[in-house]
Specification:
3 strands, 3-stranded antiparallel β-sheet, alpha+beta, single chain
Length: 61
């Protein structure tokens, strides 16, 4: 995969510059990659385990 990094002038303010990676704003690219990584490493959510009725152990004196 070829990645191309450009330094371009902002269209609405030519005094400022922006980075783009493969034509995509670099901040948007990092946000996208962050979301992808979050999806991969996100721990699975397990529903809470409800105790069954009559199965509880109670200590009696």
């Amino acid at each position: 995969m070829v990645r191309v990094l450009f330094i371009e002038k902002e269209p609405d303010n030519p005094a400022k510059f922006r980075f783009s990676l493969n034509g995509q704003n670099i901040l948007d690219w990092f946000r996208q990659k962050y979301q992808e990584v979050k999806q991969i490493i996100k721990p699975p959510i397990k529903p809470p385990v409800k105790p069954e009725m009559g199965k509880n152990k109670v200590f009696k004196r």
